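Internal tracking record. Fields below are filled automatically when a chain is submitted to the structure queue. Please do not edit lines marked as system-generated. If the sequence contains nonstandard residues, flag them in the REMARKS field before resubmitting.
Queue: standard
Priority: normal
Entity type: single polypeptide chain
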Amino acid sequence: MIPGKKNKLLILNLFIAFILLLASCKQLDTFEKDTNIPKYEWKSSFAATGNFLIADTTSVYDAYIVIRHTDAYKYNNIWLNLGFQFPGDSMRYQKINVDLGSDAEGWKGTGMNDIWEIRKQIFSNPLKKPGTYNFTITQIMRDDPLPAVMSAGLRLEKKKL
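SYSTEM-GENERATED OUTPUT FOLLOWS
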């Protein structure tokens, strides 16, 4: 190969690599806070908690409950008590039933080996107050502790319009 062509090819390859690197470094507008459940036995007194800061009040956000469990979980659903606090407001609670699967179709969500994760959308709207939002999630099933639940949390995605 001619030395001048070799240098031009090297410069072209470096330029392409740089452009690809820049294209892959865009900011993700996603927040997710998961809390591991000790010993995979979720006591009703144990809360998955978290907070996140919202500065952009013009965007629409999709919020999801995220539950990770094992194949050993013995129910097709899980009842949760979700507390959500807007900046400067008090915590408001809502009971949520998350459908995890069925006997006929198996587990919903994504799975690898014996671990399954499901996301249930709980709202899609703008968060109109800038500031820190807090959440808390507790299980309100009859079993206490509730076995085979690995983690619980909240995921917030800025909706692309």
